[in-house]
Amino acid sequence: MNFGRIQSAILLVAVSATLTGCASLPEQPSISTDDAAWALAGADRLPASTTPPAIEDLPSLLAVSDEMRRFAQDATRRESSISDKTRALAAALHAEDGRHLRYDAEATLSAEQAFLQRRANCLSYTLLFVALAREVGIPATFNEVDIPPIWELGDDQTLLLYRHINARIVLTPSQYQIVDVGGEDYSPRYDQRTLTDQAALAQFYNNRAVELRLQRRHGEALRYQLRSLELLPDAGYLWANLSSLYLRDGQLRAASIAITQALLLEPRSVSSYNTAADIHAQLGNTQLAAYFHKRAQAYLEQNPYYHFQLALTALKERDELRAYRETRQAILLSPTDPRFFFLAAELLQRFGDTEHSGEILQIALQLTPDPSQQARYRSKFGKLSARG
Known about the structure:
Blueprint: H1 3-6, E1 11-13, H2 33-40, H3 58-61, H4 66-76, H5 82-94, E2 102-103, H6 111-117, E3 119-120, H7 122-135, E4 140-155, E5 158-172, E6 175-179, E7 192-195, H8 197-214, H9 218-231, H10 236-248, H11 252-265, H12 273-283, H13 286-301, H14 304-316, H15 320-333, H16 338-350, H17 354-366, H18 371-387
Parallel strand pairs: 2-3
Antiparallel strand pairs: 1-5, 4-5, 4-7, 5-6
Helix pairs in contact: 2-11, 6-7, 8-9, 9-10, 10-11, 11-12, 12-13, 14-15, 15-16, 16-17, 16-18
């Protein structure tokens, strides 16, 4: 399974990361408590005279049906320890004679929906696993993982950043077990933290909001985005997404309030910078617009994963020279990620430079501590060499 496609947990509109050592923010327009409450209530964009489309209620996201409960009990019946039960349940979800779940990056579903449809992204897979695990006495919690970011263009106005979530099972005070939709692709070396149920479920509504936005269903997207903020009102990235949604709908005042709130909550995050630049440019605040644009662009140019994504995009467009230039830039900025070196080796092989491609492949292998990942690299490279 391709690791880049696994990162589908939290779709953030614009770029998200922490920029350390940046200058303090310039003075911005002040907002009142009433301003924030108005934006959080929909900024008069939700007509009271119509019946709103139904939104999944909170209990339904982790609800377990009788069929699901029987499945979990059958999968773990022969096991006694928490660790063995965890492995058995995870195996049953993937097995062809079990649920045979398939990965679908766009499948932001409740636990029961994922179970019935047999598809899930990492968020809905984790919802499903946590719900089933708790039914059979496995103390599963949500776990957010700081996987190196991968960006994609959602449409001509939306840059999506994918983050990752999985399940954590505490075995002893010093030991825990991870269940991840990516299975062997998961690496424990990334920073991670447990999430409350409420924070994880807020991410469900946020995902749905972005998906609906990309379908140009802005009214429905707004309802989901506001629901996410009801659960997690202090999350700056959710306010940034709300701001971007208001901006897309031409609601400048609401967008300005929301982005100001996002920056108040997370002043050193650049998740808001591109949106802030657009808003202030349209409001005529040229100094603020220039500041935020400069900070966002500086972050992007210095971020190896942004260049890596540009390389992958160029490769899809069959512009191999541009892909190689962007891959080299990613390596210069971060010479420790094996994915960068493997892509460089692949491109050199395509160029017919077999000597250097082999050398670069060895670097990728040396940087990959996981033997199974090394085997996948060798297999893929061998197939490429055979085609050449």
